[in-house]
Amino acid sequence: MSTTTQTSRVALVTGGSGGIGKAVASRLAADGFAVAVHYAGNKAKAESVVAEIAANGGQAIAVGGDVADEQDMQTAFAAVAQAFGGVDVVVNTAGVMILGPVADYSLDDFDRIVRTNLRGTFVVSQLAARTVRAGGAIINFSTSVTRTQFPAYGPYVATKAAVESLSLILARELRGRDITVNAVAPGPTATPLFLEGKSDEAVQGLAKAVPLERLGQPDDIAETVAFLAGPARWVNGQVIFTNGGLA
């Protein structure tokens, strides 16, 4: 682990210990960011990402907490500021996906995904809106299923559609602050979150539905995040569909 009291650009990546979050944390570190790798329950995985970044010459720390708990996340933001002097970019990749038809869906599962995906994004976005420095970016995560409307994704997509609207309104509310707010909407991406519970046939069917005829990789999504976190200062209040051309 490597820390410093002052650095040029600092990113906090929620859900940064695996899947898309890990790819984002690694890519931003490669771009010169000092990175806070957030985890909810698996500290060892987050520390492994931190060690990997440090081994490649980057700066990183691990910070824990429930994204839906404002006290946890205030503590996390404070830890990032103490280690690196402030926060420039916040990337909200933390999320859960529980699929099922609306008619049979468990309300306990619905409450869980709303808590993590929507309340969690709201809590982190609110703190980011208060603390991100001028020239910074807030990047939330939606899903391309808001357009494809696959059956069994209804509750999950409901949370992500709300995240899109929240992000676009926050972009307008931060007028004059020189902070961009955008949402990234991945298509089918080969992560544990996406692959869990799906048959090989279902996975291959989704891959073939994409004109490029493959699943996305976490690095594909990280490319879009790096663009929004860095040079894309004229992209604001948008949903970027990063999905290989999926309708």
Question: How would you briefly describe this protein structure?
Answer:
The protein has helices spanning about 20-30, 45-55, 70-85, 105-130, 145-150, 155-175, 190-195, 200-210, 220-230; strands spanning about 10-15, 35-40, 60-65, 90, 135-140, 180-185, 240. With about 250 residues, the chain is an alpha/beta fold.
Fold and architecture overview:
By secondary structure, the chain is an alpha/beta fold. The chain has one domain: NAD(P)-binding Rossmann-like Domain (Rossmann fold). Helices cover 47% and strands 15% of the residues. It contains nine helices and seven strands, in the order βαβαβαβαβααβαααβ. Strand 1 (10-14), helix 1 and strand 2 (34-39) form a beta-alpha-beta unit. Helix 1 (19-30) crosses helix 9 (218-229) and helix 4 runs parallel beside helix 6. The longest helix is centred in the middle third of the chain and has 25 residues, at 107-131. Residues 1-6 have low confidence and may be disordered.
Shape designation: globular
How many helix segments?
9
Order of helices and strands: EHEHEHEHEHHEHHHE
The CATH topology name reads Rossmann fold
Q: What CATH architecture do you see?
A: 3-Layer(aba) Sandwich
Which stretches are low in confidence, meaning pLDDT under 50 for 5 or more residues running?
A: 1-6
Going across the biggest sheet, name each strand in turn. Answer: 3-2-1-4-5-6-7
Mean pLDDT: 94
Helix content: 40-55%
Number of domain units: 1
Give the radius of gyration: 17 Å
Task: Tally the beta strands.
Answer: 7
Q: What structural class do helix, strand and pairing data support? A: alpha/beta
Major sheet description? 7 strands, parallel
Strand content: 5-15%
Q: What's the CATH first level?
A: Alpha Beta
